[in-house]
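Journal club prep, notes for RB
We'll compare a predicted complex against what the paper describes. Inputs for the FE2/S2 (inorganic) cluster case:
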Amino acid sequence: MHKILRKRILNPAVEEIVVEAPYVARKCQPGQFIIIIVEEGGERIPLTIADFNREEQSVTMIYQVVGHSTQLLQQKNVGDYLSDVAGPLGLPCVDHKPKKVIGIGGGVGAAPLYPQIKMHAENDTEIDVVLGGRSADFVILQEEFSKLSKNVFVATDDGSLGTKGFVTNIVQKLLDEGNRYDEIIAIGPIPMMKAVVNVVKPFDIPISVSLNPLMVDGTGMCGGCRVSIAGKTKFACVDGPDFNGYDVDFDEITSRQGMYKDQENGHNCRIGL
Ligand code: FES
């Protein structure tokens, strides 16, 4: 059983909880995820690790309330317990100490982006961050990123916060102004990551994206999370979730997501995204 230590409402549909999970907190690295079960016998929910605290032995999860199980999670409060927290799962991102990085987070994609940017900040890497969302309500963790980088840019579709437009408009402008990065990390909805890849391609900068296909077991057994990477079949849960953005077949992911939409009802995709 895993006690909920803290809880915060980030916007009407997105919440953050900090949960006691000693084993995961001891082992997890940026880029990895967990699977939780809210109540015994319940559904497995893959969730992004938004942060971890090895001393407190806790992990932070940010999730969108999109279906029955996350509604159940929404009803839990500080002091309540989660039945299971399994992980860490997936491959950690590689800690290779680049000189300058730009992190791009769309909506809840800012959650898995945060531990990666924090890792780079701890290595004294120069960092730019671009956050985006439909409106001000959907831009999360702006304050937290501002503690890691002096350059946090925001774009909203309706202009209610930051620049009116998309994250790609800001990325294009930064590149056109001559900013150069050793690495780009883009995490958010599939159309956003695909658009960012198309913008940065002419500049030939390495880009990693984080994929969130349907997940069931999270151990490479069920095949639910298969994706095509450089023409080869990979499983996001064990070979990812981070991949080279230039190698990803985004169109295939989009069409598979559409195929499962009715059955899925938001239950089993990694809900940090
Ligand atoms: Fe089953 Fe990845 S979730 S193979």
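Talking point for the session: Residues 100-259 form a domain with the Rossmann fold fold (CATH 3.40.50.80).
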